[in-house]
Amino acid sequence: MAPERETSARERTPAGATAATRPRARLDQPRPPRRRLLPEWDPEAFGRLSERIARFLGTGRFIVWMTIVIIVWVLWNIFAPGDLKFDNYPFIFLTLMLSLQASYAAPLILLAQNRQDDRDRVNLEQDRKSNERSIADTEYLTREIAALRIGLGEVATRDWIRSELQDLVKEMEERRDGHVVFPAERSAGRDVEDR
Questions:
Q1: Nearest Cα to 49, choosing from 117, 98, 111?
Q2: 149-170 pLDDT per residue, tens
Q3: How far is residue 163's CA from residue 169's CA, in Å, rounded to a whole number?
Q4: Measured in whole angstroms, how far is the alpha carbon of residue 128 from the centre of its chain?
Q5: Are 117 and 96 in contact, with CB atoms under 8 Å apart?
Q6: Rounded (10°) angle between helices 183-194 and 158-177
Q7: Are 111 and 57 in contact (CB under 8 A)?
């Protein structure tokens, strides 16, 4: 059945100058994964592992364990029977192990520091954007408060309304008593009072 499918697919492809010589790739589907020679790893998982190792290397517990291992190593290779010793006096194998540990520890620590720097950079950028938003909000609120103050200057305040009502009460009492005050006299008298 497989050969029939291949022939039917070949028959459907258009012929001519514009026809493709190979089957067209579908754009709505992901490409199939390519084979790689090198092994693949998750950079995030490797970064997290390196941070855990770097954190452990920076603790007193690591120094204590490293000291215990070195002391046991040296004591074993000095006092153990001759056929059980694996690293005689100059302790070259111990030196090799320590240099190997240091050669792996240094890049892991640098990788952890680079990841921390990246996190700090992202946090700093987020803080900067947050500060810019806060400044913009503060400026907006300042403009709104200034507009409200300007608007309040044009609005009748409670004291102004109270004084107007008191003036009207006085005017009505004076009319009732028979003494008529003309509006020009009232406004001139109030202007003197306002000053």
A1: 111
A2: 887 777 777 888 889 999 999 9
A3: 10
A4: 10
A5: no
A6: 140
A7: no
- Given a contact cutoff of 8 angstroms between Cβ atoms, the answer to whether 53 and 43 are in contact is no
- Residues 137, 28: Cα–Cα separation, whole Å: 43
Q: Is 94 within 8 Å of 70 (Cβ atoms)?
A: yes
Amino acid at 166: Q
Q: Is residue 179 within a helix (H) or strand (E), and if so which, with residue range?
A: none
pLDDT-derived band at 195, boundaries 50, 70, 90: very low
- Reported residue count of the chain is 195
How far is CA 60 from each of CA 66, 99, 172, rounded to the nearest angstrom? 10, 20, 93
- Name 152's Cβ contacts closer than 8 Å, sequence gap at least 6: none
What residue type is 182 in one-letter code?
F
Assign 27 a pLDDT band (cuts: 50, 70, 90).
confident
Task: Specify the DSSP class assigned to residue 89.
Answer: T
57 contacts 106 by C-beta, under 8 angstroms: no
Report the alpha-carbon distance of residue 66 to residue 75 in Å, rounded.
Answer: 14
Question: Which amino acid is residue 3, in one-letter code?
Answer: P
What six digits make up the tokens of 62? Answer: 């690591």
